[in-house]
Design goal:
- This protein has one domain.
- It is mostly helical.
- Helices cover about 55% and strands about 0% of the residues.
- The termini are far apart.
- It has seven helices and no strands.
Length: about 150
């Protein structure tokens, strides 16, 4: 077995290559553009749909939503410039955790985490963390298996 025999990408990653397959070598078909779009879209949704901070009366409004801070992190800036394939996985994982931390977001959190897990296997270790977060915020029934008796 050689190193080249190992492929860390799952079938979901092929969806981000469809524009290139359909449109050819055009700027809009560049997969790096779609990696960044999925990443920024997922972070924007996480900022909009994630848990709300407990700001009291008279508190100052935050200038930047904390869910958008990973977009400005140097560890994200380099893959953004170089077209890192992990960006959509990271964005969907952040979205899944943000939704899992909000009451009533179990289905949406599962969809976001499932999409991340379908892109690359590196998202899989975060799934138990999301289940624990769901169990704490939405109750054990929301984090249980879908076929378990309710």
């Amino acid at each position: 077995m050689a190193v080249g025999d190992f492929n860390p990408y799952l079938p979901g990653m092929a969806l981000l290559g469809l524009p290139h397959a359909l449109l050819g070598d055009t700027p809009l078909a560049d997969a790096r553009l779609w990696f960044g779009a999925v990443f920024l879209g997922a972070l924007a949704l996480a900022a909009r749909r994630g848990p709300r901070s407990a700001g009291g009366r008279g508190g100052r409004a935050a200038l930047v939503n904390p869910a958008l801070l990973p977009a400005s992190c140097p560890a994200v800036a380099l893959p953004s410039a170089a077209g890192g394939v992990d960006l959509p996985v990271i964005g969907l994982m952040c979205l899944g955790l943000a939704l899992a931390g909000r009451r009533g977001g179990a289905v949406a959190a599962g969809a976001a985490m499932g999409a991340a897990a379908a892109l690359k296997w590196t998202a899989w270790p975060l799934l138990p963390v999301a289940l624990v977060l769901l169990a704490v915020t939405a109750g054990r029934r929301a984090a249980g298996p879908p076929c378990a008796p309710r």
